[in-house]
């Protein structure tokens, strides 16, 4: 990318990728920015703006070639990178999240799963044994994972993230409420705060129609 | 709320609530906007602006009373509303998500769990039996749930959401990739797109330091 780019544009790329995959799977080869916009609930000019951030992918008057655009956006998202990843916490959430990582072209490759619950140690999740967290440090030294997925409560997170950052982890998919980015501004963090999401829905669900009309989508 | 309010402010409220709960649990009774800002990685003026959207909670020179502010924000978020909720999909993700709803003061009350997998039907999750989706329609007619949590893939979502909306569901916590809001603009939808989140992290993880410096946090 040549120019400065906003994080919102980046966060929209996976959605384009999903829509294009769907179009491709339905045998659609060419689409105009107008039609893509209608299907995605965006405007054609927003789509053109977003794609221009990465050099633009269309051809005047032709529209977009769907399989080509799909491949290009996939490359930008580094879906084939296979970044070495460990999962910490093998409860229901950890198992659900692992299945997302195992999805073809997630960009990540799960190499180790850890849990402090001894009853789970030794179980196999999609071919990978669950190890006790006691082995985490040595595993990281031996295997040099780059990304850690955090599916445990916030309690022991300070010590854990300190250790993981020291061992070379430089990106986190964080499902805990611990603020990793504040403790370690040097690493990349993508947070999924399920409780925050649920509370936002609680606010909206319990608001009256008149109150909802006062909510603007402006940031 | 009196004036127009942006969705971003609303989305920050759960985070304030979490931080205040933590302060309260640590016995902190009073906090200045400056100190709260530092702990949360925000600016004091942003905090004052956010709270002013709801009438303002502070007292000049005193700061905020932590337990009071916690209670007030909880009321705004309707954490005690106990909105009748059904969960569709009782796999790992569904079970993980159910535990969030069962959390004290989530704003929601889980009244039914459904899955089309007959092997799961009859199992009990935190006191609630998993019913086959064949019973979904009658259950909704009898129990009038307001919110549905969607933890199934996108495949059958069109028919399912059409039915749920017809049966009176007016708010969705949506973990599928199906765009409920586009199909049913009349309902409230809070999406959690795990794959999109993971792909955003993939992009960031595979970007060089120079590329990361070009990403602005502006929307």
TrEMBL record, chains A, B:
Database matches in SUPFAM superfamilies: NAD(P)-binding Rossmann-fold domains, Winged helix' DNA-binding domain
Known DNA-binding region: 15-54
InterPro entries: CoA-bd, NAD(P)-bd_dom_sf, Rex_DNA-bd_C_dom, Tscrpt_rep_Rex, WH-like_DNA-bd_sf, WH_DNA-bd_sf
UniProt keyword annotations, A-Z: Cytoplasm, DNA-binding, NAD, Repressor, Transcription, Transcription regulation
Localization in the cell: Cytoplasm
Record carries keyword Cell inner membrane: no
GO biological process: negative regulation of DNA-templated transcription; response to redox state
Family classification: Belongs to the transcriptional regulatory Rex family.
Function (record text): Modulates transcription in response to changes in cellular NADH/NAD(+) redox state.
Protein name, UniProt field: Redox-sensing transcriptional repressor Rex
